[in-house]
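[Discussion] Sanity-checking designs against the backbone

I'm trying to build intuition for which residues belong where. Below is a structure token string of 96 positions. I'd appreciate it if someone posts a full sequence so I can compare it with mine line by line.
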């Protein structure tokens, strides 16, 4: 898995402690919907198996669904009023 972090996202994460936690979460919509990518700058409360992944300038922890990894995990900053870090599984918000 290759990790690509935008400079804006790296700066945001650094200002918020330097750790980024990335995991997937199923929606309550329907069982066939792929899980959505979630991020946090603090360790999530829900138990999951996180692995440390190589990322330039960040401490990145990733919990892959069913042990699968994307080819590319992209991390970017979104939102002007309320900036937030988002992760993309091979370019998608859904883990495919």
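Best answer:
Here's mine. Compare freely.
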């Amino acid at each position: 898995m290759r990790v690509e972090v935008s400079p804006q996202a790296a700066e945001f994460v650094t200002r918020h402690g330097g750790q980024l936690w990335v995991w997937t979460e199923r929606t309550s919509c329907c069982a066939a919907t792929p899980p959505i990518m979630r991020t946090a700058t603090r360790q999530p409360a829900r138990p999951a198996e996180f692995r440390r992944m190589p990322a330039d300038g960040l401490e990145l922890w990733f919990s892959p669904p069913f042990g699968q990894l994307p080819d590319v995990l992209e991390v970017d900053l979104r939102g002007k009023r309320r900036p937030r870090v988002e992760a993309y599984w091979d370019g998608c918000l859904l883990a495919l």
